[in-house]
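Recall the central idea of this unit: under ordinary conditions, the amino acid sequence of a chain determines the structure it adopts. In this exercise we apply that idea directly, starting from the sequence alone.
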Amino acid sequence: MSKLAVLDDLLELYNQFEYHRQPEIFTRLQEVQLWQKQRMQRTHAPHFAEKNNVLMAEYFLNRLYGGPDFDALAGQIARLTKYAHKAEKLIPENAIKTGTSGVALAILAVQLDEQVAIQLLKDYPAQTPLTDEMMRLTYLKLDQGSARLKQLDMLDELGKSLDKYMRSFMVYTAFKMCKGAAHKYNFDIMYEFMQDGFVAMKPLKSAEKFVREFTAVERQIIDKVHRGDPQPFQ
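Accordingly, the structure predicted from this sequence is:
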């Protein structure tokens, strides 16, 4: 079986999301994603501001938590899977595994946030500006605790994989050699998705440590939400 086969299942899931066909959901989803990013920026401000962490923080916020060009990325991934046998000869196996994990995380983030967006539209007028209280109550109503913890577990595993597989000089050299082919066959967005991960990781002593510190705080917030803390995001 192709190592890229898992991407077919991820894309099938992604293409089923309702926001693709309902503009009102798409608009609310964008608002939810913006709230998420702004909340994370506040929550993790000291951690994200550390000199070596800045690029990885940007990668988290703009890639793993729903980047603006993810539809285009998904389109390129769909094309790639049609030429899996060729791609697997060009891209290092560990880069494929780690890149797939990143894509899975990005799609899960969209899936969870779309659920929030749909629930918000049920409970509030579409033009209502989002507040922390609206988000707190929506998280409780949806009972996403287990799914959000799974998301953090996957993120921890990605941090380990980045340290284990992606710091190799040979892997990075092989990956850079794919740049010309990526441009030639119009896979630039997908290449940049992975390239940005390499660049973001470079200043870090340990990607696993960066991620672990991030997820520890996020788990505390999830716990506060589901314990009924009236201000879990403070």
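Residues 5-227 form one domain.
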